[in-house]
Task: structure prediction
Amino acid sequence: MNDPKINPDSIDMTRLPVHVAIIMDGNGRWARQRSMVRSEGHAEGVNSVNRITRLASDLGIRYLTLYAFSTENWKRPQAEVDTLMHLIGWTIRKETPDLVKNNVKIHLLGEIERLPEQVRNDLEAGREATRHCTGLNLNICLSYSSRWEITNAMRKIAEKVKTGTLSPEQITESTISDELSTVNIPDPDLLIRTGGEHRISNFLLWQCAYSELYFTPVLWPDFDNDCFIRALLDYQNRERRFGMTSDQVKQN
Ligand code: IPE
Ligand code: IPE
Ligand code: MG
Result:
């Protein structure tokens, strides 16, 4: 927070990440630091979601994937789960008109069937209202975990092998990618985790094979435009080698 102001003009607009994924962590600690209840941290976190979505859209980033609620988060106290569900429904209802105005298209990733009916309806209405949008693709991960997703994919592939429409020899990396909920979405170029933890917490394990990882101690409610721009600048200073040598990358 004491970092110098960042100049957005220093971003190289020709080298933006196509896909940014974010593990939005630290709402609870943000609240605790202020002697507030955790739900107030989650409510404040919604402001960050709106702010970062708007900035990503304004910059022309194509895909923004937000980890909003994990499969493991169902284990939290029921009251906190209820608050989060309520907040998710409320936010999507409130923000949909602005998303439409900004040409942002909502996609839902995860076991949406597990969410309360009212929230599912709100999400579905948001998805329907933004179906025609062609700007930023906003992927919201709810009741999502990577192992859940990969397990599902394996079941579908096994079913095809069982019925004879696919042979084991025909299974390639794209056979697997095509059964994930991120089908048709390029892998994240940049994965950001706020809140200071250095872990992936069951998020996009397959898709992040070659993503650049960016960890920041900033708690999600404090993650402002400067923080996002700082992450983008850091990304632009990396050399993505994909297994090759630095010389090879430079020749390309
Ligand atoms: C992230 O903040 C929000 C969700 C996981 C839904 P946390 O609630 O995990 O905040 P901390 O990690 O306890 O500070
Ligand atoms: C990861 O945060 C999940 C989301 C941000 C939705 P957690 O706070 O649940 O992660 P862990 O449990 O500390 O790894
Ligand atoms: Mg957390």
